[in-house]
Amino acid sequence: MKPFSGIVKQIHLYLGMSCGILASITGFTGSMYVWQPEIIAALNPKLLAVDSMDKISEEALLKTSLTLFENQKDTIAKIFLPYREQQTISIVYTNGQTFYYHPENGMVLGQKSASISFFEDLLMIHRTLGIPEIGKYIVGGNAILFFLFILTSGLFLWWKKYKSNFIKGVRIRWKRNRKRLNYDVHKTLGFLFFLPLLVMAFSGGYFTYNTYYKEGFKLVDGFTENTKPEKKMKVGTTLDLQDLLEKSEKNYSLRAIYLPENLTSTYQFRYVKDRLISPGLRKTKEIKLDQNRKVIDAVSFESDLVSDQIAVQMYPIHIGEIAGMMGRILVFISGLIPIILFITGLRFYYFRTYIKKNVR
Length: 360
Description:
Layout: H1 4-34, H2 36-43, H3 45-48, H4 58-72, E1 76-80, E2 89-93, E3 98-101, E4 108-111, H5 114-128, H6 135-162, H7 166-170, H8 178-192, H9 194-206, H10 210-221, H11 241-246, E5 253-258, E6 267-272, E7 284-289, E8 295-300, H12 306-312, H13 314-319, H14 324-359
Helix pairs in contact: 1-5, 1-6, 1-14, 6-9, 8-14, 10-12
């Protein structure tokens, strides 16, 4: 029977060679997507940027959105107001086309560009590998295996060997032979990036298995005193869509409107605390209406339980925005590490297995 460390080595080896290639793909695509706002804004100034955006009031944005909605409501699927890199209003129509409009005068600025579509496809590959239906489960399951077994087994093996000599465990000797240099790079980067990779993998699994994550987060509610204010908007209250589009919220900005896709779906109004990318906690609000315009759900960060507040942070944590520019840079670099670990891991296996056999 193999000792425990031998079992851990086998787990690290075989999961690294199988799950490692998927982690390399999702890590690389995620790293590229970190800079999506800046790249998209630079490539599409006519669609996404307007002069003196800071002088356009919230009331003007809502008025333009209402006018566009009233004029074309029978053909509209979604309306997106300025957020992140987008300073304009975009409308997704029921035929799948997307057009952009000036936020103050409502003039048509153009149709979705190839570069915007490219980053949408990049995000789809990152989340589903481009595989319909089951792709998200493959990616989510791989993320969970990565942080539960690959990273933890690697840390165990590193600790077992270098716990009494930390400096040696993080040092790369560049003038060593190929085999030793390859090993040094693998064990050093694996240890140095253990924590950011663990956080990224854990938060990445949330987007597939959010229901289970939320159930787990509810454990926190048992240790916190529920002193949240009651929801101001009661279920069953009838709301006028025009009122929601005419009256600006005191603490939130309207981000998106989702119109019913069929006779059983709902109206959704999503709000954000800040329209621009900013560090710190992500604070949102959402209102859902049935087709009779009655409230069926209304949630906001202030009235959410702690477990729900944690769940909302999974996206800014995953992409690094919760820590500002330094967080995004760390995520960008960390996303490239799985490729290096996968390649050095394969080379290490090759050096130890095939070359060793040939020498004999």
